[in-house]
Amino acid sequence: MNQPTPAIVAQSAVRRLPRWSLLLLCLAYVVPGFVMRGPWRSADMEAFGYMRELALGHTSWLAPRIAGLAPGADGLLPYWLGALSMQLFQGLLGPEMAARLPFAGLLVLVLAATWWGAYYLARSPGAQPVAFAFGGEAQPVDYARAMADAALLALVASLGLAQPSHETTAYVTQLAFTAMLFFAAAAHPYHPLKAGIALLLGMTGLALSGAPTMAVLFGLGGSLIALTQRSWGDAAEANPRQSIIWALIWAAATAVAVALTTALDLWIWNLVNTSTAKDWSSLLQLLLWFCWPAWPLALWTLWVWRRQIAQPRNNPHLSTALWFSIVPLIACFASYPADRALLLGLPAIATLAAFALPTFRRSISALIDWFTLLFFSISAIAIWVIWLAFQTGYPPKIASNISRLAPQFEASIDWLTVLIALLASAGWVVLVIWRTSRNRAAIWKSLVLPAGGTTLAWLLICTLWMPLLDHARSYEAQMKLLAVPMQANQQQGCMLTYGLGRAQISALRYYLHVDTALLRRAKPGQCEWLVVDEDRWAGDHNQKLREGWNQVARIKRPTDRKETLLLLRHGSKP
Predict the structure, then answer these.
(1) What 8-state DSSP symbol labels residue 378?
(2) Comparing C-alpha atoms, which of 302, 324, 313 is closest to residue 184?
(3) How many other C-beta atoms lie within 10 A of the C-beta of residue 432?
(4) What local confidence, expressed as pLDDT, does residue 449 receive?
(5) What pLDDT does residue 488 have?
(6) Rounded to an integer, what distance in angstroms lies between the CA atom of residue 114 and that of residue 147?
(7) Which residues contact 177 (CB under 8 A, 6 or more apart)?
(8) How many CA atoms lie within 13 A of 421 on its CB side?
């Protein structure tokens, strides 16, 4: 016997969240972070470098290389997407923005797939609220739409989503295709064709994005859920034939992903071992903030829906969301990097968080509202104060700290971005007034302020702080300093490197427009110039390599004193 649902929801509580406001929120969340900046250090610059090499035809599409080095990250699809976009739109948008364009589309796909996945899970019979004796309970479609709105708000509110979802890396593609699989698992009883397309794209996309093991686990779980599912669509009765068919479809899609991964030799095992043991304190901190505020609500869902969780065959809305949450959570403990593994669970965790809302008391909702109001209001004020400090020098203590951390940064005011930031801040005030005066009965009310506050903070950072962040995180300033002595000595189009990472090599090739080669693999006399990492170049073990090379310049990265490059020239006097 199926346990009665803990959700008690009246029709008045599922009033529609205005579509224009939801779309405006998503727009304000997606666009900032992709514009007004250059490629940032490490993963972002490295990925951009490989995309550029592919777009220019300098390397193989099946085995991309920069100066003979394979990518440090996993997967091929992110580089393909960026390179294709650069070939199509570089003349219109420039190489940097063209490379980011598909990743902005993937983030939109994540938001859309989460909304529709939550919608179809909330449509299932086991998710429906209690029927009232005299009517007035929420109608299934209205209830599902309100729950989907809540899931999307919970996803946007998750603190860990903002930065990694705006990078041009494999983690964005992994997140997007995981969201597609989540949608396929939720929608296959309602829209078999759409779900089948999403399933095939999600499986192959994950396999090509460096997460084939996650694809296999999601596929096996999806096959088992489909096979044991008793309710089918809006009907509460079982459909054994459909269950078997869809279990086989999930298994076949999983087999396709396995075959593709094997054929391209893309199996990767980033498992924890003795040399990469987890720091449990750091991991606990990550779990506390990365999924906030979705994880406390998800835990509440596990408690209040525990009887339904014990009957997974009757409650696919819980078993599906749980499986797509548990697999990334286990991967967070068992593999590295932990935050990128946990990122893949955010759509499902946000959906679980939404199912907590029909069981909330008014006092809990008020507590969430007040905490969110204070936290994000203080955060917004702090962002504005720091911006005023590096623009005007007041407050002097904050201004001096910024000068110390970001030397050579010259502040300037872009009035368009200031206007956008002012409008966003005014919108926050309006949202707070609107939330406290209207729609108090709406089921999604408790997540409006968290989603709005997160979007406000992200937008303010990506407008007011973007010049400072770009100065601090980009390689451009260091590369410009490096180019000065080379131009003074008639720079050649060839450069050797030693001890540099892939991101630094990518920056050299992009900003200085030179070809590079590794010193140890270079032919004698191949290049006149050499750039080395100061720490890696020092020491007796490099004494033979240093013969014939003389230092021309020592270039520090303005915002990182430990990252120092030496420019050397063969045969020249120091």
Answers:
(1) H
(2) 324
(3) 19
(4) 92
(5) 66
(6) 11
(7) 201, 202, 203, 205, 206, 209, 215
(8) 22
Residue at 472: amino acid letter: A
CB atoms within 10 A of CB 187: 24
Give the model's pLDDT for residue 511.
Answer: 93
Burial 19-56 (b: 16+ CB within 10 A, else e): eeebeebbebbbbbbbebbbbbbbbbbbbbbbbbbbbe
Instruction: Give the mean pLDDT per block of 10 residues along the chain (574 residues).
Output: 71 86 95 92 92 95 92 90 96 94 97 97 89 78 94 96 93 97 95 95 95 95 89 66 91 95 85 62 88 93 91 89 96 86 96 92 78 92 94 88 83 91 95 75 87 96 93 89 78 83 93 90 81 84 80 85 86 57
Residue 337 preceded by cis peptide, ω within 30? yes
Amino acid identity for residue 73 in this structure: A
Q: Would you call 264 helix, strand, or coil by DSSP?
A: coil
3-state SS assignment for residue 518: strand
Beta-carbon contacts of residue 207 (< 8 Å; ≥ 6 apart): 215, 257, 258, 260, 261, 266
Q: 557 - beta bridge partners?
A: 560
Q: Structure pTM? A: 0.93
Can you give the length of the chain in residues? 574
One-letter amino acid at 61 equals W
